[in-house]
Amino acid sequence: MEIANKTSELFSQTEKILKKCDCDSSCHECLNHFWNQRVQSKLNRYIALQLLGWGEKGVIEKEFNSTEQYEIFKPIKELLELDGEFNVYFRKDAIKVLRNGIEKEIYIYISIYVE
Do 8 and 50 belong together in one domain? Predict the structure, then answer.
């Protein structure tokens, strides 16, 4: 049996395990195991549920508004503009980056990370 045919079941079982656990962040009942012991302090079942929701349904827990995105992007904008090849600007609620005649829109999404 291929795992590709079982993705719905895999997501469902993973969600059940993460939701029924009563730990604060992660434990051996939900996320921790021998092979991830070096990163267990960074694991969080609530963040794992958010990642699962995004992977399965494309759900993003919180989106930044355009002003928040611009504020987060400011340090990167300054670094890009130091290079001299990039033009970064803010238009119509979007961050735009122009280089060599090619324009790209930048979107900032909340990180699925816990310090």
Answer: yes
On whether residue 112 sits in a domain, the answer given is no
Shared domain check, 72 and 45: no
Q: Which residues lie below 8 Å from residue 26, measured CB to CB, with a gap of 6+?
A: 32, 40, 43, 44, 45, 48
Adjacent-strand bridge partners of 105 = 96
Short-list 53, 54, 43, CA closest to 21: 43
Tell me the per-residue pLDDT of 67-113, one tens digit each, with 9 for 90 and over: 888 888 999 999 998 988 999 998 878 899 999 999 999 988 776 55
Cα atoms in the Cβ-side hemisphere of radius 13 Å centred on 4:
0
Residues with Cβ < 8 Å from 27, sequence gap 6 or more? 21
Q: Tell whether 40 and 13 lie within a shared domain.
A: yes
Indicate the pTM of the whole model: 0.58
Structural domain containing residue 21: 3-57
Question: For residues 104 and 96, is the Cβ–Cβ distance under 8 A?
Answer: yes
